[in-house]
Amino acid sequence: MPSRWDRLLETKPVPVIEHLVSEVAKLVAADLVGWPPSIGEIEPAASQQLEAVLAPGKPRPASGVFTESFRLARWELERETAAYDDYMRNRRWLQHGLAPEDKPALLFLCRWLVEQMLALGESTEGRVNRPRMLDCLERIERHLVETRA
Question: Which of 140, 143, 148 is nearest to 61 (CA)?
Fold first, then answer.
């Protein structure tokens, strides 16, 4: 009769970098669930724009804003500038069910997600590269969808 530890012993070890990406995804998703996410210092020029999104009493953006923010963040990390520029120039977020007043939240969330991923890459001295950052973004988005379900 197999012992209760046999299954554990038979599993493959998870590489540290894989475990790190998984844990970061959980933490970042938790930050987004507990709206507003934590942010560091804000430059005075950006504080007025952010006030529209982060002011006390402001509701959490709609799920569509999150979906579109992840799309933009992926494009930015993939360096798909043509797709990003076309989306913004032609106001494609309107075609995806967002309203004009959702734009500040869309841009804030995109920037916040990209900054989180780039900070992760910097903190790990490049061991978390762009493909891993993209994987992390996908995991974050999955955690958010699971949380809403």
Answer: 148
